[in-house]
Specification:
single chain, 14% strand
Length: 58
């Protein structure tokens, strides 16, 4: 990995972190998004969020 200068560093690839990284990049800031786990998206992509968004049937 090469050493670079960043104006914005975001730790956490949750939906909030992703949104912050996109907003900073759109403002032409050199942005780095760091996620310590093996996937990005937090609880929204782990399946937990889906359980609580379904309406009961029957």
């Amino acid at each position: 990995m090469q050493s670079k200068d960043y104006e914005v560093i975001i730790y956490g690839g949750t939906p909030g972190g992703i949104g912050a990284a996109i907003a900073a990049a759109r403002q032409d800031r050199r942005t780095l998004l760091l996620e310590p786990s093996s996937h990005i998206g937090g609880l929204m992509t782990s399946g937990l969020g889906r359980k609580f968004t379904k309406f009961p049937t029957g």
